[in-house]
Design goal:
Distance between the termini: 19 Å
Radius of gyration: 16 Å
Oligomer: single chain
Number of strands: 11
Shape: globular
Order of helices and strands: EEEEHHEEHEEEEHEH
Strand order of the largest sheet: 6-2-3-4-5-10-9
Length: about 200
């Protein structure tokens, strides 16, 4: 019921200068997809390309997700999901991780890939929200070695604990809130977010 309650209802995509981001969903998990480079930031200076086997300077988009570290590490495929991992993630606070993937192009708008236009001020707020979700050491993000699923994605140590009230989807929802986008009051499921991005 709380996911039906909207926040930032005055949001309108009518600024003279906008930056397009995407919210993408696989039906269970949502990610934020941003341009690799804008005049606000170049993510390659913060998430180095040399961490990735395949990504290069021509890649256009970068996806960010946040979630339970153990869940991410032990379930590269949904067939790998176990009851132990589910209960661990759901019933008590656990360490988190940031999942980052570079993509050659931006997503194509679809039911599961929703474009969102942000003003420069809103985009800066979202960038800061994402930055603050990474643990850092001496100003650098902390790579979790050998944990990526493919040659263009990786995992990094995340800040805060994962717990049911703050799930992977609530992390995305909170990012949209921080940017002033109309979204759900609380969003445990992808549908909770995507329904507000019509």
């Amino acid at each position: 019921m709380l996911s039906l309650v909207p926040v930032n209802t005055s949001y309108a995509q009518n600024e003279p200068e906008t930056i397009e981001i995407f919210v993408i969903s696989n039906g269970i998990h949502t990610d934020l997809v941003l341009p690799v480079k804008t005049h606000v930031t170049d993510w390659r200076t913060e998430i180095p390309l040399h961490h990735f086997k395949e990504a290069d300077s021509t890649y256009k988009s970068i996806a960010f997700g946040w979630g339970d570290r153990k869940f991410y590490m032990e379930t590269p495929e949904w067939s790998d999901l176990t009851l132990e991992v589910v209960l661990s993630a759901a019933l008590w606070p656990t360490p988190s991780a940031m999942h980052v993937a570079y993509f050659p192009s931006k997503p194509a708008p679809s039911q599961h890939q929703k474009p969102v236009l942000l003003s420069v001020t809103q985009y800066k707020a979202l960038v800061n929200y994402i930055r603050n979700s990474f643990q850092q050491r001496n100003g650098d993000v902390i790579l979790i070695p050998g944990a990526g699923y493919t040659s263009n994605d990786n995992f990094y140590e995340g800040r805060e604990k994962f717990f049911f009230p703050k799930s992977c989807n609530n992390w995305v929802n909170s990012g949209l809130k921080a940017a002033g986008v109309k979204t759900a009051f609380w969003a445990p499921l992808p549908f909770s977010i995507m329904r507000h991005l019509q």
